[in-house]
Amino acid sequence: MGRSRDNRRRAGAEAVVEAVEGGLAELIPDPDRARAWSLLIDGAPQSHVDLDDPAHLSFEYQRRIGHVIDLAVPPGKPVQAVHLGGGALTLARYTAATRPRSTQQVVERDAALVQLVRRELPLDPGARIRVRSADAREGLAKVPDGWADLIVADVFSGARTPAHLTSTEFLDEVRRALRPGGVYTANLADGPPLAHLRAQIATAAARFTELALIADPAVLRGKRFGNAILVASDSLLPLAELTRRAASDPHPARLEHGARLLDFTGGATPVTDTSAVASPAPPPSVFR
Questions:
Q1: Which site in 73, 85, 149, 256 is 20 to 30 Å from 96, CA atoms measured?
Q2: Structure confidence at residue 55 as a pLDDT band (50, 70, 90)
Q3: pLDDT in tens, 1-27
Q4: 20 near 113, Cβ under 8 Å?
Q5: Cβ pair 225, 187 in contact under 8 A
Q6: How far, in Å, CA of 235 to CA of 182, rounded?
Q7: Tens of pLDDT along 244-253?
Q8: What's the CA gap between 101 and 79, in Å, rounded?
Q9: pLDDT digit string, tens, across residues 90-109
Q10: Alpha-carbon distance 202 to 191, whole Å?
């Protein structure tokens, strides 16, 4: 069976469609890359993986997180990373490919999705990637104090970030698991009037001393719904290089930091567990 499945991929092929806990999962072959696949959940694009080139990041928000991974520690140095939200394990594969000997933990609640991805898009046997089926916050609580150089949050349920992953209490868990000077990065999604995004910046500012936000200028101006990448640490961030990479991407983005980023919050207050709500649902037009 394994041999025929591999031949099917190389030949061009069929989509794989299965029900998972989060909805209907589809693995769609990339017509331009022999062993590359996109993962959709209920029609919403989640991940893209090239099994022959795991360092290739097709989605713009994943490329922006890739820049953060590249710059979190010196080039080539292995990292200890935690990925909250797995999808097709794209960013864990990227980290393993660009930083050999890294040790990574992935926390993905949808056990059926994990099984599908492991079967159809198998991990490199040499990659030190452990996948745990658990709620993101519960899984994070099991990470030892100060273990992680890098924590990546990319968690969506029904295209919305769950409320319990948006609070100061959640960020307290992030800080506990990070080593001193470690980096936290999160994929945030919002649209006009950007109330969720502004509140998330205020929440991060209540727990980290250094912040940056990377996004399409139209998203930052509240012109359309889209993704924004939060970067946070208690050490200085590589702002100049992040700015350069964001601006030179095929889909150029802007980086905001310092006083301009705090002004962007517009007086929003930090979110706590008692006030937290899920991120807004994207409009249907986003996926057309």
A1: 256
A2: very high
A3: 343 345 344 445 799 999 999 999 999
A4: yes
A5: no
A6: 8
A7: 999 999 999 9
A8: 8
A9: 999 999 999 999 999 999 99
A10: 17
Residue 58: name the closest of 91, 85, 12 by CA: 91
Helix residue spans in the chain (DSSP H): 2-11, 60-72, 90-98, 111-120, 136-141, 168-177, 195-205, 217-220, 239-248, 258-264
Q: Could you tell me which of 96, 162, 82, 170 has the C-alpha nearest to residue 127? A: 96
Angle, CA of 123, 129 and 135, to the nearest 5° = 105
Q: Is the pLDDT of residue 272 over 80?
A: yes
b/e map 123-145, b = 16+ CB within 10 Å: beeebbbebebebbbebbeebee
Please state, as a whole number, how many other Cβ atoms lie within 10 Å of the Cβ of residue 113.
23
Query: Does pLDDT of 277 surpass 50?
Result: yes
Cα Rg of the chain, angstroms:
18
Contact by Cβ (8 Å): 202, 266: no
C-alpha angle 229/41/49, rounded to 5°?
65
Question: Tokens 């992935």 appear where?
Answer: 106
> Which residues contact residue 77 at a Cβ distance below 8 angstroms, ignoring those fewer than 6 apart?
99
CA distance 154 to 14: 27
Q: Say what the pTM is.
A: 0.94
**C-alpha triplet 264, 269, 271: angle, nearest 5°:** 115
Ranges of H-type helices in 83-233: 90-98, 111-120, 136-141, 168-177, 195-205, 217-220
